[in-house]
Amino acid sequence: MDLGLADRTIVVTGGSSGVGLATVCALLDEGARVATCGRDADRLAKVAAELGAGHDRLLTGVCDVRDADAVRDFVRRTAEEFGGIDGLVNNAGQSRMKGLDDSTAEDWRDELELKFAGVLNPLQAARPHLAASGAASVVNINAVLAKQPEPRLITTSAARAGILNLSKSLSAELAGEGIRVNSVCLGLIDTGQWTRRYAAADSGRSYEDWQAELAADRGIALDRLGRAEEVAFAVLTLLSPLASYITGTSIDVCGGVGRSIL
To answer: Where is the Ketoreductase domain (predicted)?
Structure first.
């Protein structure tokens, strides 16, 4: 199926690894023009070298989404290079594995700043270009934590719930400008974050056995972690002009771990 993304310009934040990188790759495969940013210059250089060779449809830039000026500069450069912006994937972010007693005031402040700035700064910068697109779509990468809090991730759960609420509000606010806003809520996805936690655990088990035990502990119905490319499929579906009547909703990509019916 042709998703209608060829020659459209999509900005992906946090695109140097994991879900963001899988989304960048999938978009390039569909013929889209992609601009992606991240904080790690070395990772971005590697992405540019591996994916950007041989064509001019990939633009990369070092940028912290909490820095509104840097985000505006990156978005401006994207629009100038590619002639506009049709989609935005707000993916930059991380999880903070802490409970209430371990979380400081600084933890709360940093987590809320990252999650909200990670959506609002790119959106505000891209908004005029999206409004001029005629087929604009914003996809906020979130987590099932937004709907069913996890005590071991208390600051992240609260921040993600706020972003889900914000996404719903934005879908109504921006509908008149022709900008759709949706969310993709993740469960446990096999990315660098989990390989690092596996290494830190130093359990002596194989990564496959460790994953299986983790899946059982978290009640994942499909009995495994997800893959980044499985998330990318949902993201591209929502970016596609074929999804032009979908806004203000969320898609769970979580292997059946979600217990909420809302």
So the answer is: 8-164
